[in-house]
Design brief:
Layout: H1 6-9, H2 19-27, H3 32-53, H4 55-58, E1 64-66, H5 81-84, H6 88-91, E2 94-95, E3 98-99, E4 103-107, E5 118-124, E6 128-130, H7 139-143, H8 152-178, H9 180-199, H10 204-231, H11 238-263, H12 266-274, H13 291-296, H14 300-313, H15 321-326, H16 334-338, H17 341-345, H18 348-372, H19 382-391, H20 393-407, H21 409-429, H22 435-463, H23 469-497, H24 502-517, H25 533-538
Helix pairs in contact: 3-10, 3-11, 8-9, 8-10, 8-23, 9-10, 9-12, 10-11, 11-12, 11-19, 11-20, 18-22, 18-23, 18-24, 20-21, 20-22, 21-22, 21-24, 22-23, 23-24
Length: 552
């Protein structure tokens, strides 16, 4: 079709093309072209995983104490010297058999390192010495985020997830306005620039600002990549593609574990995954523009060019004018276009359903990130514990995929939440000397939250009608980010109160309550997607039916 035919296409069926049916019956719903593009967009998911989980190592708080000038080596002071050589007994105050890590006795003489050189008065540390065992360098050791400044550690994690919240809103809207590919490139550029600059932050304030901007951009990368990949495949492959990208996310988590174990320096770790990511900017020449977005925005010639490219790569004949006419879809009813989110809120049944979904998202995200970022609280090696937590995501997402496919969305979600809640509850009851069992149930809790996380997106999208579906999914995701923001403070409660089991108990109660509340919802597997609010209200009362064009 020639360039002069753009005006003709405005009145042609391409403007109301049934892309799903065209992919399934003519081009191929997951041919060579889609597989290649999907593989490309999945790779950046590994980068976003490394950025999101880096705080497990970046924010690690090592053992620390005050530096004692008259006793410690002026060249290379060592944390353990005070305890090996015994001068901790008269230089550092102790309470209930534990040495104070934030204060020391005042010297009355600086001539010798002896008990008579120190008086009874106590002062805060002038300089700190860290026990460099797991990580040689973290943001805690670089910026001295201990004692009266220890608030900055959970704050940095909450600010990161606040950035994720803002980024999800900003880049989500931009994706609809300027297109998925452009948003991907813009957010990737911001991720790389801000991520690298954060490594060279001169103060914690600069770091927090740049980390916020990095978090904001990396979620834009993941969202736009996810949408680009899913929009290019047929309906039958959406569950598969929606879950498979999460496995690339897990792979990124495992790469982070290897980098952290080998480098032990937060700056080197960040540069190790940020600098190679500059190559993703080359996607400008590789990624297509979203066919669905182009059609929705009346860019018909460009949409046709992308369709022809897909047909060529998949080895099928080029599309003809008759193909475009044959795959025209029925026009949507006007009622769907007029309904708004406010109309949903006027219906108590749908409002109640939305509140249950909001609570489920809040708890799922709180659990997922709360357990993921709390690897350092487990007994044993932090690198091994983090790796085990990451590996549990493989079976977690597998349970989500097979559960949604064969058992249904509701059953999978309830099972996942109750398993996670029960595991967290048992873990909170176990005494500290049963560290192996504690870790086992901790991992089981992470597995359940991962399965719930993988199920939440699809289940939410199927519970609400076409007219408000995107808004409901978007608002649910926003509420979920609040759970991620508060999770560092729930973890911190264990330190502040001295009740190490308290965070796990909170996670357990929240997960079990969420799992019970989900019984109020209905199953959506093999059921037609509701087109309007009336259908959404009635779908819970319908008998189970199989529909070919459901988004399974």
């Amino acid at each position: 079709m020639g360039p002069n035919e753009g005006s003709r296409l405005v009145v042609n069926p391409i403007e109301n093309l049934d892309v799903d049916r065209l992919l399934e019956e003519r081009i191929g719903d997951f041919g060579r072209y889609q597989r290649w593009i999907y593989f490309l967009v999945c790779l950046p998911a590994g980068l976003t995983a490394a950025i999101t989980m880096a705080s497990v190592f970046n924010n690690l708080v090592p053992e620390h104490r005050c530096q004692i000038p008259v006793c410690d080596s002026p060249v290379i002071p060592q944390y353990r010297d005070a305890f090996i050589l015994g001068y901790a007994n008269f230089t550092i105050p102790s309470f209930n058999g534990e040495y104070d890590s934030c204060s020391r006795y005042v010297e009355v003489s600086n001539k010798t390192c002896a008990a008579e050189s120190f008086g009874p008065n106590i002062t805060s540390c002038d300089k700190n010495i860290y026990n460099i065992v797991d990580m040689k360098r973290t943001i805690v050791t670089d910026f001295d985020l201990i004692c009266e400044d220890d608030w900055a550690v959970p704050m940095s994690e909450s600010i990161f997830f606040a950035g994720v919240l803002v980024g999800a809103i900003v880049f989500g809207q931009l994706g609809d306005l300027i297109g998925r590919k452009r948003v991907f490139m813009l957010s990737m550029l911001q991720t790389v620039v801000c991520g690298i600059l954060a490594v060279f932050s001169p103060s914690i304030k600069f770091y927090l600002v740049l980390n916020f901007l990095t978090a904001m951009a990396q979620v834009g990368v993941f969202q736009s990549a996810f949408v680009l990949g899913v929009e290019l495949v047929g309906p039958k492959k959406r569950v598969f593609c929606g879950i498979m990208i999460e496995f690339f996310f897990v792979f990124g988590e495992l790469v982070l574990a290897v980098l952290a174990w080998g480098l032990r320096d937060w700056k080197k770790i960040a540069l190790a995954y940020m600098v190679p990511s500059i190559l993703f900017l080359g996607y400008f020449f590789l990624l297509p523009r979203s066919i669905r977005w182009l059609i929705a925005n009346q860019k018909f010639c460009e949409a046709e060019a992308e369709l022809q490219k897909a047909a060529r790569w998949n080895g099928v004949p080029q599309l003809t004018e008759q193909d475009i006419i044959n795959f025209k879809k029925e026009v949507l009813e006007e009622a769907e276009e007029k309904e708004s989110f406010l109309d949903l809120l006027r219906r108590p049944k749908l409002t109640g359903r939305l509140l249950v979904v909001f609570f489920s998202w809040l708890v799922t995200t709180m659990l997922y990130y709360g357990l993921s970022l709390n690897a350092s609280s487990l007994a044993g090696n932090v690198f091994l514990n983090y790796t085990l937590l990451s590996l549990t995501e493989f079976p977690g997402y597998a349970i989500s995929y097979f559960g949604m496919t064969y058992c249904g969305r509701k059953a999978t979600m309830i099972f996942s939440m109750l398993i996670s809640g029960s595991a967290c509850f048992i873990s909170s009851l176990l005494p500290s000397h049963m560290s192996t069992l504690q870790t086992t149930f901790f991992l089981l809790g992470k597995l359940g939250s991962t399965s719930a996380f993988g199920t939440a997106y699809l289940y939410t999208s199927e519970l609400f009608p076409t007219s408000v579906r995107n808004l409901c999914v978007g608002f649910s995701s926003m509420v979920g980010r609040i759970g991620a923001i508060v999770s560092p403070y729930i973890i911190e409660l264990g330190v502040l109160t001295g009740l190490t089991w308290l965070p796990m108990l909170i996670f357990a109660i929240a997960a079990i309550l969420s799992g019970i509340s989900l019984f109020a919802l209905h199953e959506t597997k093999d059921k037609p997607l509701p087109r309007n609010l009336e259908e959404a209200e009635e779908m819970g009362n319908r008998t189970r039916e199989t529909v070919d064009e459901t988004e399974d």
